[in-house]
Model the fold of this input.
Amino acid sequence: MEELLRHIAEKFEIAGEVLSVEPYGEGHINVTYLVTTTARRYILQQMNTNVFPDSENLMKNICAVTEFLRARGTETLRVVPTKEGRPYFAGEHNFRLYDFIEGTVTYQTAPNEKVFRNAGRAFGEFQNALAAFDASVLTETIPRFHDTPKRFADFRAALEADALGRAETCEEEIAFLLAHAGTLGDCVEGLRTGALPLRVTHNDTKLNNILMDAATDEARAVIDLDTVMPGSMLYDFGDAIRFGASTAAEDERDLSKVHFSLDLFRAYAEGYLSAVKASITPREAELLPYGAYLMTVECGMRFLADYLAGDVYFKTKCADHNLVRARTQLRLAAEMEEKREQAQAIVRRCLQ
Ligand code: ADP
Ligand code: GN1
Ligand code: MG
Done:
């Protein structure tokens, strides 16, 4: 296997001789490797063509976004071309190569408020930068990615099919989702009527999709640009809170450890809103805590739908991994509902 990967790494314009190729990172979608050569390090990724069938347009998006960011002086991913000058290598599986961004770390949970505040500022600045980016050059890599009512319909279909007979093992989670079906439409509805502005958004703003400086904990680069598409600010704010304002990992089995932390919420809101204060609309600001709830329920239903379908979408490490993930999300969503008003007061204070 390593021999094959080595061979694939050599298809790209790399410096030096390949010394090793090792599995790397905690992403749920692509298969990521660290490539070390005699000259430097790279990130090699086997692209997930089940999730993103159109590699050509996906890489066009990433090249366009990274070139745009680099031109304005923002540190970003650099796509290393193949020796034939292509942005990815097409074979039995498709692969791409990035420079490894040295001197950085990624966090699977927020180690303290400072890191999370810095992440918030960086995703806010990313949002600002993309305000000047021409959305018409982007392909929608996953149509209706954060259309939560549609995600709910997909969940219902997976439940009806119950392909592996797993529904009986998650009755409580199913009941929670069915009971919350009526709360999922405000964002798509706002975008449809124009009450919420359509922006270019990242759409997958979890803390491990940002590289933090290993020495200072300042944010260095926003990565995982596969889902940069038109969307709502509520998606980017909400998904970051979903993952990072939890007191435990996304796949913590012990639910007594899983809580929605208002201190972490405040830290992220301070960072994010310090960057987007000038462009956020009053309606967006009011709905930020709802956005966190929405992205968290949505993610919970995606994990549960994948559990019911037999783990065909997210990478898993054990048979009930998606169920464990779904449980943390639903626990967090319930606490977010309880703390909605306190979270709204925090947002208002940040904007004063
Ligand atoms: P996935 O889509 O599977 O989440 P990512 O693109 O987010 O894949 O990459 C997975 C992990 O690999 C990231 O969380 C990060 O830790 C690491 N990583 C990705 N690209 C780079 C890079 N250019 N430099 C350093 N680390 C990286
Ligand atoms: C996936 O690629 P990664 O691991 O950063 C997923 C997100 C989910 C997240 C849950 C393209 O993100 O939408 O919120 O897992 N990405 C895609 O951890 O589906
Ligand atoms: Mg990722």
Observations:
- The chain has two domains: 2-102, 113-350.
